Amino acid sequence: MKNALLSLLFCFCCFQLFADGQTILPNRKFGKPTMEELNMAVYEPDSSATAVILCKLTDISYKWGIESFRLVSEYKVKIKVLKPEGTSYADVIIPYYELPNNAMKENIIGLDASAYNLENGKIVRTKMKKDVVFKERVGESRMNLKFSIPQVKAGTLIEYEYRVESDFFFSIDSWKAQSDIPILYTEYNVTIPEYFKFNIEMHGAEKLETVNENASLNLSIGSQLLRCSGTHLNFQGNQLPALKDDNHVWCADDYCTQVNLELQGIDFPGSLYKSFTQSWEQIDETLLKDSDFGSRLKMNNPLKEEMTALHLEQMKGADEKICAIYTFLKNKVRWNEKYALYSKSPKQVLKEGTGSNADINFILISMLKDAGIPAYPAVMSRRDMGILPYSHPSIQKLNTFVVAISPTDSTLVYLDSSVENGYLNVLPPVLMTNRARIIAPDNHSQWVSLENVGANLLRSSVKAGISSEGVVTGTRETVYIGQYASRLRNKYRTAKDSTEFASKLASEENIQVKKLQMEGRTHFSPQVYELVEFEKQYTVNDQFIYVNPLVFLHVSESPFKQSERKLPVEFPYTDQVSLTINLTIPEGYTVDEKPENQRLQTSDGQVLCRYIITQQNNQVTLRYSFRLQKLLFLHTDYPELQQLWELIAKKNNEMMVLKKL
Q1: CA-based diameter of the chain, in Å?
Q2: pLDDT, tens only, 462-519
Q3: Which domain holds residue 94?
Q4: Residue 259 needs a FRET pair 20 to 30 A away by CA distance; which of 59, 183, 217, 595 works?
Q5: How many of the other CB atoms lie within 10 Å of CB of 275?
């Protein structure tokens, strides 16, 4: 009955593909490619695809090992390479686990891979040899199996299959129905014995055909055959579009069509029910008991004696003390550009003079506590690593933390040791998640959002005169706050010297820099002040001068080029810009044309741009403001967002025309 249902479902999917005008039908047979597959030159639903997954089969089942169950995962993948860029899909990496001393591990068995090419009208198979298969350790418990399939070029059909047998029977990996290339057909089968109680979750925009039915299972336990009931799950997807990374999406996997199975518990006959479901409070307790996490929160300040030189007792406010401690620590230890949740020994970190953000953060917490300033870790999943699930607590989803500091009983500020150019509450955008959990003892842990912890503001004033030769000469005074200050400091740090920094500024803004003065460019402080004396040449002829009254553009072009979009738009942080420009018209000229005043905004008012230009005698004043208050826009909002940004860019590029009297 089960096979009949699945065959019927497969035939239905094939019919749908054919009905949609697709010229090639899925071929679930491996080792027997068809001429249609080899002759395929383009994937009609996505002609830009460099490769397409023609068929991907995943089967999950259980078997009895020596002392317990083992999870068996079988994979079969068939890929058609359509363009030279698609040959990269012949390089495959399979991650797996292997704990120290072989306590628990995963074995990859039955790896087989081949490339098929058409030569003189005949199908030629090139089988992968074992000498191109390598193992690589990438962590204490993580391994990679890597291989490259030979003789792959545009037009090649790739096939590979393997099986993973795992001691981690309690954990089934999420099944991703989509990839970064389109998929013609994919199928996921899971057979679960009655003893395992799973919570099944599906999400994503693409449709999957599903079957959920009872099954009769036979399990071999030693020389005995155990018969039990179970559940068989089947998911099928066809013509699934590619899910590509995007400049305005932190983690595309958050929106991938997928199936997640979370083990709730195991109920063996004659044994007590064992729950695998955790609460966030239990995860708090686990972390606080961990030797590489909780124990670090109890350690004494390793820089206690040296810290006396800071004379913290002479400082007035907590913020001043926090900044002094942080700057002192950062002069001792350099961030190695790695994010982590657990840390090494603080002695080792200080000796090496470098460490992950976790390594340095734990030392920072101990120093702050020693100074009488409460500090706690705020654990999270980085924005580029996926959203942290509230409803399905998982310690595996946590990958780093920032430091939550309580300078007063009612306030919190945030800091991370990866910050090189920021300040309090100016975190790297990748850490500004809306779901972080402050881990505190005595059940005082709490959820916080780090999306809007600090203001990000650029405030600029330009005072300049326009000559009859079309040269705008004047000054620009700018205050950079929050992320704007961080970005400017980063530009300054990456420049070879101040001369190169000024040269890049001149090139970016198409100006001549006559003088450049900055304050706070290298300090750990809330803002940067910049004064620029400049000249900028505009178009001039016998009758007219054409000048952009903004002088320094905010948005030169729209970043939203796609005609349509399937993913949401995610902005890194809230944003505010305020520009005031005062221009003096040259003697003998009058304003012939100037841009119209305009107010541009989204329907919900969360993005707003104002452009107000006035004239009084020979003075033209432009007041320009921009405000972004919302970070997530659904894909259905994209047309409005795209149109708005195009209008803002158009407004930024409008010219004022001065006519000679």
Answers
A1: 106
A2: 999 999 999 999 999 999 999 999 999 999 999 999 999 999 999 999 999 999 999 9
A3: 2-270
A4: 217
A5: 12
